[in-house]
Amino acid sequence: MTDAKVLVVSKKISSIHELLPALQWAATTQSELLIIADDFDNEVVATLAINYISGVFKVMAVRAPGFGDRRASLLTDICIVTGATLIDEAKGLYLRQFSPEWLGGSDRVVVTKDDTTLIAGKQTEERKAIIEERIKVLLSQENEAKGEFDKKQIREQRAKLQGGIVTIRVGGHNEMEIQNRKRLVDDAVQTIKAALTDGIVAGGGTELLRARNSLLASKKHMNNTFLEQGISIVFDACRIPCEQIIKNSGFEAYEILHKIDKKGSGFDVTTGQVVDMMQQGLVSPAASEKQALICACSAAKVFIMTNAAIAPSDKMQDFE
Questions:
Q1: Which of 62, 97, 121 marks a domain boundary?
Q2: Same domain flag for 101 and 209
Q3: With 80 as the cut, is the pLDDT of residue 93 above it?
Q4: Cβ count near 126 (within 10 Å)
Q5: Closest CA to 31 of 95, 84, 103
Q6: What pLDDT was estimated at residue 288?
Q7: Whole-prediction pTM value?
Q8: Transmembrane residues, as ranges (predicted)?
Q9: Whether residue 109 is found in the same domain as residue 205
Q10: Distance between CA atoms of 157 and 78, rounded to whole angstroms?
Q11: What is the percentage of the chain residues whose pLDDT exceeds 70?
Q12: Which of 208, 274, 219 is nearest to 242 (CA)?
């Protein structure tokens, strides 16, 4: 849908008669209309689908995202971005009293089986100010939230308001090259989404290298030999990502790791210099670094609990 109007309703639409004023307006003005509501009765969906296919009017119905209080918050975000008025009977607004002034707008709407994307287009300065104010409210809610799940949900909500929409066109000389580039672009997009949601840290394995120093403080206060051995293993493992990246780039890892530890910076493999990674824009999503460590620990647990392992014959003497 292009140049679509947006109608946002905070209730389930149980009868097509509730929508008649809005549908008549859409048919008369030949406008494309997106209706977002808590839910739709099957009869309503069937009627809208038949009329859409037959060309009577171009109206699409989408179930509102989320549940409970989160749904109400997301509907507020949609209204702020599109300029729509939330039709809420608790506030004295009813569908049967439909007014075109309640409608918001979106330059483009993309509806798939799993999700809906609203592209609001260029915003006025007034609208930008309203969105910025909403982002501040969400940031305050995130800081006050107690559970990590709630914090993550609010971060994702804030990221959607802050983010924009871009079309990436990928080409190549043959199908294999195009598919490979598409995968690289998809990886980059997912990385950016993760960064928007959970923030960024210094890249190149630098953050794990720096974080492992906190393990030394914990080790000093332990009297358990097994825990000390576990800490030593994790301490050494956190060095490997940075070390391997340096080796893969053809540099001597030992001296560079010593410089990084000393300066608290990172290594830029493109220039061969120790630099401030954050200042140079060499960053990674915090979620990726965290998940990498979690997956490594999981793999190590499986190996420890395994009764047998396969290793090269020249290494077998180490296990005897």
A1: 121
A2: no
A3: yes
A4: 9
A5: 103
A6: 85
A7: 0.57
A8: none
A9: no
A10: 11
A11: 93
A12: 208
Give the end of a domain, one of 78, 103, 121. 121
Contact (Cβ atoms closer than 8 angstroms) between residue 6 and residue 105: yes
Please say whether the dihedral angle defined by the alpha carbons of residues 115, 120, 126 and 128, taken in this order, is positive or negative. positive
CATH code of residue 237: 1.10.560.10
Whether 241 maps to a domain, the answer reads: yes
The number of residues making up the chain comes to 320
Range of the domain at 33: 2-121
Q: Residue written as tokens 């190149």? A: 204
C-alpha distances in angstroms, 118 versus 37, 111, 184, 218? 15, 9, 25, 49
Helix (H) or strand (E) holding 266: strand 266-268
**Does the CA dihedral 282-288-290-292 come out positive or negative?**
negative
Rounded to 5 degrees, φ, ψ at 90 are -65, -20
Q: Which helix (H) or strand (E) holds 8?
A: strand 2-8
For residue 121, give Cα distances in angstroms to 2, 4, 106, 134: 11, 11, 7, 18
φ and ψ of 36, to 5 deg: -115, 120
pLDDT for position 180? 93
Report if residue 275 sits inside a domain. yes
Q: Let me know if residue 181 belongs to a domain.
A: no
